[in-house]
Structure formats: C-alpha cells, structure tokens
Amino acid sequence: MDFNINTKGQTQNQQPGRETKMDPEPVVIRDSYRGSGKLDGKVALITGGDSGIGRAVAVHFAREGADVAIVYLEETQDAKDTQAMVEAEGKKCLLLKGDIRQESFCKQAVEKTVKELGGLNILVNNAAEQHPKDDIRDISTEQLEGTFATNVFPMFHFVQAALAHLQEGDAIINTTSVTAYRGSEGLLDYSSTKGAIVTFTRSLSGNLAEKGIRVNAVAPGPIWTPLIPSTFDADHVKKFGKDVPLKRPGQPCEVAPAYVFLASEDASYFTGQVLHPNGGSVLNT
Fold first, then answer.
1. Which residues contact 90 (CB under 8 A, 6 or more apart)?
2. φ, ψ for residue 64, nearest 5 deg
3. Secondary structure of the chain: what % helix, strand, coil (to 5)?
4. CB 62 within 8 A of CB 89
C-alpha cells in the first residue's frame, strides 16, 4: 500500500484538530490487517481515542477482539465516527467526553468504563497537546503548566484509578514521542513532557512488575494526525515528515500495531520498553 501523500500545506485554526477536516484523511487501518483474537474479551480505555493514533489504536484493538472506551475533549463528530468504526468490527465503544486535566474526570472515566464494559485490562495514555514557540521566553506560564497538565498529570490520575481494576497480565501503554529522544527546538515544553513520559514509563514498570502489570510506551515520529494541521503553519505542514529516512509522514495504521503488540500476550516479556515507529530515525536508545 502506497502511503505517500500530499499534505497540501493545510491548516486548522483550532486545537484539538478535527480528522473530518483533513485532506487526505489519515489511514486508520489497512484493509489487509487481519485480526487474530489477540485481545479477545479485553476492555481498553484510550485517552485521545477520537482521532489520529488513538482512533487507529481503538479500531485495531476492536479488530483483535476488545471492547473500547475512548476519552475525548470536545471533538464529538470525530468521536462518533470512531465509535462507528469500532462497532463495525462487532465490538462495543463507550464515548467519554471530558477534560483529562480534571482529576475527578479521570477517575469517573475509569469507573464508567468498568461499569459499562465490565472491567478494564488495557489503559492507553495517549492524549496530548503542543504549541510551537521558537523562543523559550515566549512560552507563558499558562502554556507551560497547561502542556504538562494535559500531557503528563492525567497519566498519574488514570493509573491511580485503574489500578483497582487491572490484574496480572494487563497492560498500560503510554504515548511518548521521538522528540523525547532527539529534542525539538520549537517544541520545548511538549518535548519535555514526552521525556517525562519515558521516565514515567520506566519507573512505573518497575513499580508494578511484582503485580504482573506491564508498562510500556510508543514513541511515534512524524505521523499524519489532526495534531499536525492544528499546530503548524502551512509551510511546515507541506514539508511535514520529509526529513526522516523514509521521506514521508507515517500513517496512524502504521503505528497502531505497536500498541496491539504491547497490549497482547505477544509482549509478555516486555515492560519498561519503548517502541519507535518513526520512519527510520536511529536514536540509539
């Protein structure tokens, strides 16, 4: 399948972005992807599950047999579209609208997932925001605190709430980024949060090892998601992803199988690790 695309320098004037406004729309799942029951009977909760990587993970999980709850901020149409995709796979999809910066909502989302879907086996901490600034002096306290409040703090709150339900063999998967390893001069606060997520993943994996709960992460490179046109100017979007060895941005469907692997028994000997679907950037991690 040819994933070379023309991003057309498109932009969106709001964040979170909308997948329904993207042209071309991201590829969610390959037609050739065949589920094999890797997640039969499992329940997954995915933050930022309405679009982008989160949507692709939700649909892949469903094709592998899992019911899914997706958390989103306000992108109702995107969330409903994702729900329809999951249900087309014959699985349940619970929509949870709210602000993950509120600890109470994180707890409520976990409890509602357990109540409505019958349990919780896989927690995917995926939601994030980013706001480019070329000069560190232009990063306001409000932006700095807001980026951490979205990208890092909810991971603690969701895990704290989920641990009452996760059992031996269950999994936590966090979304970090290539920027955690190579840095990003224009995304100082965002890349800092992604570095924190790597450390969080490694530390939590040790903390939960005796319980048999595996904790891993995925560090995507340039992936074609709504975050891109809603973050960058037209020139940046037009060139997006051309600087990696494969010379193109990745599609969400090229990232989601990494989450399937980490959520399944195939990754039973993986914990504290990070997978790197990034188009060929060698990070020596």
1. 62
2. -90, 0
3. 40, 10, 50
4. yes
- CA-nearest of 94, 128, 90, 117 to 220 is 128
Fold of 39-275: Rossmann fold (3.40.50)
E strand or H helix at 15: none
Q: Could you tell me the pTM of the whole model?
A: 0.95
CA distance 222 to 243: 9
Domain definitions of the chain by residue range: 39-275
Q: What is the pLDDT of residue 285?
A: 65
- For residue 249, give both structure tokens: 């941005």
Give the model confidence (pLDDT) of 69-103 as tens digits: 999 999 899 999 999 999 999 999 999 999 999 99
- Other Cβ atoms within 10 Å of 35 Cβ, number: 17
For the chain, the distance separating the N- and C-terminal CA atoms, rounded to the nearest angstrom, is 30
Inter-residue contact 49 to 100 (CB < 8 Å): no
pLDDT in tens, 28-83: 999 999 999 999 999 999 999 999 999 999 999 999 999 999 999 998 999 999 99
Between CA 73 and CA 68 the distance in angstroms is: 17
Instruction: Please state the φ and ψ torsions of residue 14, each to the nearest 5 degrees.
Output: -145, 150
Active site residues: 190
Q: Could you tell me which of 57, 62, 65 has the C-alpha nearest to residue 127? A: 57
User: Is the distance from CB of 263 to CB of 257 less than 8 angstroms?
Assistant: no
Q: Which residues contact 55 (CB under 8 A, 6 or more apart)?
A: 19, 26, 28, 49, 70, 78, 81, 82, 85, 252
Query: Mean pLDDT, to the nearest integer, of 173-178?
Result: 98
Under the phi-then-psi rule, with left for phi > 0, alpha for psi from -120 to 50, and beta for the rest, what region is 51? Answer: beta
Q: What does the pLDDT read at residue 284?
A: 75
- Contact present, 213 and 270 (Cβ < 8 Å): no
Which residue has tokens 């901020």? 73
